[in-house]
Amino acid sequence: MAARNDGPSCSMAICLKSTDQIDHMRQAGRLVHEALQRCRAICEPGVTTARLDQEAEEVLAESGAIGLFKNYPAPSPNVPPFPAVTCVSVNEQVVHGIPGDRVVADGDLVSIDFGVRINGWCGDAATTILVGQVRPAWKKLCQVTEHVLQVAIENLRPGRRWSEIARLMQNYAEESGVSVVKDFVGHGIGEQMHEEPKVPNFVSKELLRHDITLEPGMVLAIEPMCALGGEQVRLGADGWTVVTASGEPAAHYEHTVAVTEDGCEVLTDGG
After folding, report:
1. pTM for the full model?
2. Residue pair 144/137 in contact by the 8 Å Cβ criterion
3. Could you tell me if residue 239 is left (phi over 0), alpha (psi between -120 and 50 degrees) or otherwise beta?
4. 20 to 30 Å CA-CA from 69: which of 99, 127, 138, 185?
């Protein structure tokens, strides 16, 4: 579940994780990976988004893990807490889509975001599934967005500033012809799903004022969201689902990643 881009991070509040703690987070990451893979296997024309959520619920039941999203407090007053264990966002839905009776169709893009806590530690990841015959421009959007995440992973190492990583991510996306959604950003993760720091996928004056130097033991949920038709988004009538203002599709990819002494380790890739 993405963090809202509603204020600066405080680097003093960043909690570094020990090797043992990162091992616990890897266990959580494996469950997230398993759930996303199981959802991918059944995500085909005719399935409902509620059925995808049910598949992730079954992973929680089998493992004894706790889902991070269900009953998460709403960002606005008078909106109920999030009602499901996954966010399932289809086509123009960018993030925080509520699973329900929407039926997946051939050519859809289905973004699934899932997080768990087990033995006190969290994992969080997302992927966008291309269903059936996806039009070329939409396929390219997914390829670019997934590579934006890979750019971050390949360049993560101690001593680098997060703004350096964010600039590489933003440049790759925009040079490839897609827009970076700026209303939501990645985040630190550990015993809680949302911890400091916020890690945007773009460079801003705010980031440069509150930049972060990467250190071993930092664990980040890095989650680029990109869209066709511009970066502007709006909140749907349910108070949760965020959609592109243009009505064009979006893609969302995320991994939980630990900074190590000589680079980084992805904790949600099933390894």
Report:
1. 0.96
2. no
3. left
4. 138
Strands 3-4 and 184-188: antiparallel
Please report, for residues 90, 131, 168, 225, 265, the alpha-carbon distance to residue 147 in angstroms, rounded to integers and kept in the order given.
Answer: 20, 19, 11, 11, 17
Backbone angles phi, psi at 88, to 5 degrees: -125, 115
Question: Which stretch of DSSP H or E encloses residue 88?
Answer: strand 86-90
The DSSP line for 181-239 is: P-SEEEEE-SSSSSEEEEE-SS--HHHHHT--B--TT-EEEE--EEESS-S-EEE-TTS
Specify the pLDDT at position 10. Answer: 41
Those residues whose C-beta lies under 8 Å from the C-beta of residue 131, and which sit 6 or more positions away, are: 43, 44, 45, 104, 105, 106, 107, 108, 109, 110
Q: In this structure, what token pair is assigned to residue 132?
A: 């059936």
CA dihedral 197, 199, 205, 209 (to 10 degrees): 30
All structural domains of the chain with their residue ranges: 3-266
Q: Which residues contact 68 (CB under 8 A, 6 or more apart)?
A: 1, 115, 116, 117, 122, 124, 193
* 143-153 residue pLDDT tens: 999 999 999 99
Other residues' Cβ atoms within 10 Å of the Cβ of residue 160: 14
Q: How far is CA 192 from CA 68, 195, 202, 203, 252, in A?
A: 9, 6, 24, 26, 21
Residue stretches of the chain with pLDDT short of 70: 7-12
Is the bond into 136 cis (omega within 30 degrees of 0)? no
